[in-house]
Every structure is written in C-alpha cells, then in structure tokens.
Amino acid sequence: MTRMLGSDAILRSLEAEGVEVMFGIPGGAILPTYDAIARGTTVRHVLARHEQGAGHMAQGYARASGRVGVAIATSGPGATNLVTPIADAWMDSTPLVCITGQVYSRLIGTDAFQEIDITGITLPCVKHSWLVQDVREIPAVMKAAFHVARSGRPGPVLVDIAKDAQEAELDFNYPDEVDLPGWKPPTKVHERQVREAARAIAEARQPIVYAGGGVLNGDACVELLELIESANLPSVVTLMGKSAIPDSHPLNCGMPGMHGSKFANFALNKSDLIIAVGSRFDDRVTGKVSAFAPGAKVIHFDIDAAEVGKIRSADIPVVGPLKLALRQLTNELKTMLADKPMQTAAWHAQLEEWRGQYPYKYRKGAPGSLIKPQLVMETLRDITAGRNDVIWTTGVGQHQMWAMQYLQCDEPRSFITSGGLGTMGFGVPAAVGAKAARPDATVICVDGDGCFQMTCQELATAALERLPIVVVIVNNGWLGMVRQWQDLFYSERFAETHLTKQVPDYAQLAEALGAAGFTVDHEDDLESTLRAALEAGRTAVVDVRTDPEENCYPMIPAGAAAVDIIEMPDEEEVPS
Amino acid sequence: MSHHTVSVELENKPGALVRISQLFARRGYNIQSLAVGPTERPGISRLTLRVDCSEHTIEQIEKQMHKLVNVLRVVELLPDESVERELALITVGAPPDRRAELIALGDVFGARVADIGREALTFEIVGRPEELDAFEELVRPHGVRELARTGRIGLRRPGPRQSRAQAALT
Ligand SMILES: Cc1ncc(C[n+]2csc(CCOP(=O)(O)OP(=O)(O)O)c2C)c(N)n1
Ligand SMILES: [Mg+2]
User: What ipTM describes this predicted complex?
Assistant: First the structure.
C-alpha cells in the first residue's frame, strides 16, 4: 500500500497491466496525469498530432500485437476526437482502453469549459465505460477496464477521470482480482455441440470454413490451420480475417464478399455446410441475406453468443473461446475421420476449377500509359515476397480492396485494416501504432489520396518518435470508391469526388512533415522507387499517380445476391 | 410478433439503466413498459421489461443484455411460470350523482378509492396488467381525466413448475 496521487495511480495501474506504450495528447483536464508522466513511468508516451490519430495508433498497436492498446486524451474536444477510433475498435473488436480527463467533479453537469458527456456519447460503441470521481476507485476501475477490454470478444472501453480524482491522494494497491459479478464471458465450450459439429463436417460433401477476424482475436490461427489441414477443409477468409491462415495455403480460397473473388463467393454460396469461425455474416459478405448460401447448413463458432443466429440462424451453434473450440473439434474430427474419410473430392475438384476460372484480373496498361493501381499492389507483393516481417495497413476505398485482393499475407496479424466502420484515415496512424508494437517489422501503409489527407499529420509523429513507416499512396486523384459508385449506380454524375492528383504535392508534404517524399508517374520507375522508399531507413511516402478510371472488380452491388457479381466489363481482350 | 416479459437483475450503478434503454433504442427494439426498483439484495435492482417482438428478437435482446457489464441475470418470464402485477392510478370524472355507481364498479375489481374530489375520484388498482386494462375500459365511458400505470413487475413462481390449475388461481 503506497500513498500517492490519483494521477500516479493511473500510471502505476498501466505499469501493472504491462502497458509498454500509450498514445495521446495532453490538455487541461488530463494535465495532472501528464505531470505524473513527467515524474516518471516505464510506459512510453507517443505524442500524436490529433486524438483520432492517437486512437488509431492504439488500434494499430493492438492489432499488430494482440495486446490492449491505450489512448489518452483530455476532456471535451480531446475526448470527442477519440470517438471515431472507439467506434472503429467496437466494430472490429479491437481491445482498447481509452483514458480521458474530465472536468472537476463539482463542475460536472454545469457545461463547464471543455466539459462533454463522453461516457454518454460513446455509450453505443463501448463494451463498458466508467466515470471516476472518487480517487479511491482508480485501481479497481483500471483493473476492470483492462479485463473487460481483452476478455470475451475484445473491444474498446473508456475510463473518464475527473481532474480532482487525478489530483487527490489515495492508498494505492493494485487488485489481483476484478470485481465484476455481471461480466462472465464464456471460458468453456459445450462438448456435445462440438461433437455435433464434427459429425456434420464429417458428413458434408461441400463444406467451407468461413473464417473471420475472431480467429486472430481469439489467437486461434494455429488451431484453425490444424483443423483445415487435418480434414482437408477449404476455407474462405474475410477482410478482417486476412492473414489468419496463410494466403499462400492451398486450402485458402480467398476473400468472399462485395469485392471478393467470384471463386470465394461461389465457394461460400454453393457449399452445403458453412463452418463460420469468428465471422459474423456481415452484409458486405452475405449480400442479400435471403439469397445467401441457400443450400448450406451452418455451424457457427463464436465467443459472442449474440453473434450466433443474429443474421443467419445457426443449425449448430458453438459458443466459447475459438482456440479451445477448434482444438476440441479437430480432435473429435480426427477420430471420426479415422473410420470414414471425408467425401469431398468432387467439391475440391469443383473449387479448383473455379480457382482457375476466376482469378482477380485487370486490363494491363499499354506501355507509357497511366499506372494501373493493381500493378502497384503486384509490385509491392513481389518486392516483399518471402519476407515474414512485413505488416500492411490500409485506408478505406478502392486501394484497400485491391490491397486485400493482391497482397500476400502469410503471417498472422500482418494485415490491419478498418473493416466494420470503414474509416478513411485509419491507415497512417494504424501503421505508426503497429510499428510501435513491432519495431523490427517493416510497416507499409497502402493508402488512398483521400484517406491520406485525413490523418497525414501523423507522419510527423512517425518521424519524430522514430517509428518509421512507409506510406504508398495510390493517387488516383479521386475519392475513388465513391467515384466508382457514381460511375456504376449514379449514371456517371461525379458530384464532389474529384481531388486532383497535384494538390497537395504529396512528396513535398511528406518532406514538410519530416518524411522522405517520392513521386512516381511512370511504370518504369515504380519498382525502383518503392524499393528506395523501403530502404530509406526513415519514414517515407511514395506518391504513385495511377489511372483514375480504374474500377475495382469484381463487385456485388449492395443488397444484391452474392452470386450476382458484376465482373470487369470486357469489351476489349484481356492480355494475359 | 408476440408479447414477452423479461426480468433483469442489474447492479445499481450510475448509468446502468441508461445502458439498457440505449441498447433497446440503438438496436430498434420497442419497449412497451419498463419498471425498475430494488430487490431483496442491497445494490441490486430488478427491471421488468415488456416488449412486443418476434422470438428471434427476444433471443437477441437477452443475449445483448447479457453482455452489459452491470447486468447480472436476464430471464424471460413465461406466463405460466410467473406472477405479474401492475398498479394504476385512474382519475375518473364523477359528479356526486355518479359516485356511488363508480365506487361499486371499482369494488368488483378490488379498486380502492385513493382520493375524492368534487367532480372526480381517483382509483388505485393493483392486479394483473390485463385486469387493469379491463377496468380502464370499463370506466372510460365515465371520462378518464388522468391515468398513470407503473408498468408491470414480475417474478418467477417459487418452487417447482406450477400446474395450470394453480396458474389459473392468480
Ligand atoms: C471518414 C470517412 N468519410 C467518408 C467515407 C466514404 N468513403 C468511402 S471510400 C471513399 C473514398 C476514398 O478515397 P481515397 O482515399 O482516395 O481512396 P480510393 O477509393 O480512391 O482508393 C469515401 C469518401 C469513409 N469511408 N470514411
Ligand atoms: Mg483516391
């Protein structure tokens, strides 16, 4: 038991939780805690340039490491700037502890300067939140915050701490146990359900695993691989699940959904058994739900009971930790298959036919023409081939979908993107956070020109905090994905989507923010410039000017059946 | 669509109730009635919610509520296995010449007269929510000036499952 200030207690709590780094920006209501930072802590503080950046950095850190990310901000505008990352972390189940200062207790409710009800604002997108007005609550609340953020289905929590609680004294003792009688995430799985699942798999003729981000969150990549290999089960992998099993694995059938391959969508939709593992039948995957996989039975593995049966009813629900569930499933299945092997040869033959028939494709540019964005991805993929130290982050838009289609991710947690919320501006700060988590990794952000302009100020953070990242801007001069919708669904009325490629000059902007800037206009310079940026040894930005008219295919229009896929219009021959 | 009554035990912490109502609002569930009050255990409140929704939705509601950190228990109160009561205060127009008739009517339903004014009287009635509905209908022709209902509260019946005969008694 040590007598100390509330502000110091916050830091001692973070230290007790093993936090290495926090991302934030100070201000009046959190100043006592920053003063405690000045007094000393083992937790590294990374000074972001915008609280949204701090929040996405904490997310990037969490997604790259599997640990809880920590962001810290002041009251009022500092707190509201954290709302987007909190919502993003909520949608993508990222464990996050956000600490915000709040005005003095006696001022709460008076519309005091920089007072905002941040626990109220964030209510729909946190797992839980606390408003701390009594200094003595700090240790237990911090303990509970970390526990809730990481246990069960991970997600964001918010701890809003009044300034007087930071300034008052307490006898500090970090509790060993959490006192949360109402928080009971499942720790076991129902054996009978697992056995039933195994039986259904053993009997299926056209089974498909549908793996999502829960596999990464549940640290179940090894177990999933073991499952699919032991039963020779093909698997589609969602955007959030990318890297959970290697992209190069022969059983990986790629990504289903709006911009997934026809192959993956057919594999999922024409199966007779869907084994959903940590995935949630998102509308971007299912398309029109009533037309989705009409002939399939569903086994649904998830840590969150509320996801099971939410969109598509599950014939065999299995609620519990995926790691445990998959391990048990594999054991059961191995025993069953010893007597009677899987009868899936015809299905595998069909899948391989589709795989050959429906690769991602694009029309290569004529020599000297504008660079095709897909070529940027292929080049990035090729120059990083064979490396296991690369982590990709992305913005949101066409470039994100091309990154998903073409980049090859074989290591878990090597693809970090904003899936559920689709937050433009996620890429750069998430990359900084990933670099903080994995300093020896090469972190590359594939960004759009629109996205980049939303959070590029964090390049200064990357440069000054010695967290070098490489940003590759697919500069098509447009809010490309929106342009694509206008092109396809709004009769080419391109309202307010033109950004221009020239303003800003991204290379100059990069230099101004302390990074190296490169510009590529011609295909011939693409590979050498990307290599130069990767070898620059400091934060670098490559502005790649690409063909603005290139659309991302295939595409399932929103609300259409997942098999009604728009393919690349082929009025011309596609050169191989 | 069908009626469902859900009983929720929750920690009596600041914001606990808001989290529940927020959940309902955000997921588009419609609350017909909601009553909250203390339980036999200090620091723990009981909430009785009435919702009209499908079986699928009620299952979702229960699962979503389970995830709230302050929620300790969620059970659906099935009609045969639970006791439900509600209290209503109803002020009815009652000129002196109609008073006796109204009071007699109230007697039949076990409604007590809580207050009498010159031109109106206030009934207090406790019963199953359907009984309250029936009484309300009955006095309506006399002119209901104001009405307040607490929203139903309920508990599971104690002990083993009840026979239909016992259920009919209450
Ligand atoms: C914060 C935010 N605002 C708006 C959108 C809607 N939106 C989705 S993609 C997109 C365009 C992105 O443009 P850019 O970064 O240039 O990527 P591109 O599609 O051109 O590759 C927009 C505006 C969004 N997803 N997020
Ligand atoms: Mg663009």
Answer: 0.91
